[in-house]
Amino acid sequence: MTSPATSILIVDDHPVILRGFRTLMEDVGIETIHEATTIVEAYRAFYRQRPGMVLADLTFGAHGVTGLSLIRRIRSLDRRTRILAFSMHDDPTIVARALESGASGYVLKDAPTSEFLRAFDEVRSGRSYIDHDLALGVAMLNANTGQSPVSTLTERELQVLSLIKDGHSYRTIADKLAMKYKTVVNMISAVRRKSGAQNFAELVNIAMAIKD
Question: Of 53, 112, 133, 209, which cross-links 82 as Cys (Cβ 3.0–4.6 Å)?
Fold first, then answer.
């Protein structure tokens, strides 16, 4: 069996959540704990410190599920690193994306402390973890290709869809994601095509159906 990790990196943009996770990790005897609040800061910390395990949120402010890109970059740098993703998203498509990106486990932010610690122990010891209901949702998604209207969207397109869900205008989306207005327009057209939405109203309904 792989020896448990003794150093970890916790990545979340909410200070209160960071403190909570730090306390939990100290309680279970983790020797070295690193923290980061942005994707760039997290990657730099990982590159310098090379912790044995990473606890990574998927959503950072208005930038959507950018935690997926962090997971992929960490995995490409060191395939031995154990990564536990945590998020408010319980949509099977998001869960599947996290696992495909390289996460060894996935746990919801509102899960009981006992479940989080169980997930942590499993991933820390070199195994995988996913809640039964989440696993069932992912399995059904895989068994029914195309079941989810957002299953083929890129990470950037998911970010745009998330901002549409929050009611942001095209101009605001462009500003938040540092994109050109025309690029946003073209991307939303692509999202409509991939999701099967016949008009913008249908696209909003699809966006609203994605669980947070």
Answer: 53
